[in-house]
Amino acid sequence: MYCLQWLIPVLLIPKPVNPALVNTHVMFMVLYLIGFFLERKPCTVCSFVFLAAVILICYSGIGNCLFWASQCEGEKYDT
């Protein structure tokens, strides 16, 4: 589980409040994760634990996901 020490901090990076910066945040997260998986090649257990944590965070509530904004957030800024 040594490889989780590089994946867990990704879950702690806060999503920006400004909607204009969400795309930059998503691009950073995706590129970091792709680079991490290509360079470090984490074990299968660590990969499944991290993916399970991301899925639980993304589907636990509105606006919690690291990788995209929910529709409810977009409607909030249209007014």
Automatic annotation (TrEMBL):
Chief location category: membrane
SMART domains xref list: BC10
InterPro entries: BCALP
Compartment annotation: Membrane
Pfam family, one: BC10
Keyword line: Membrane, Transmembrane, Transmembrane helix
TM helices/strands, residue ranges: 20-38, 45-69
GO CC, alphabetical: membrane
Coiled coil regions in record: none
Domain of life: Eukaryota
PANTHER family: BLADDER CANCER 10 KD PROTEIN HOMOLOG (PTHR13259), BLADDER CANCER-ASSOCIATED PROTEIN (PTHR13259:SF1)
Recorded family membership: Belongs to the BLCAP family.
Role this protein plays: Acts as a tumor suppressor; induces growth arrest at G(1)/S checkpoint and apoptosis via RB1-dependent and p53/TP53- and NF-kappa-B-independent mechanisms. Modulates expression of genes involved in the regulation of proliferation, cell cycle and apoptosis.
UniProt-recorded name of the protein: Bladder cancer-associated protein
Highest classification ranks of the organism: Eukaryota, Metazoa, Ecdysozoa, Arthropoda, Hexapoda
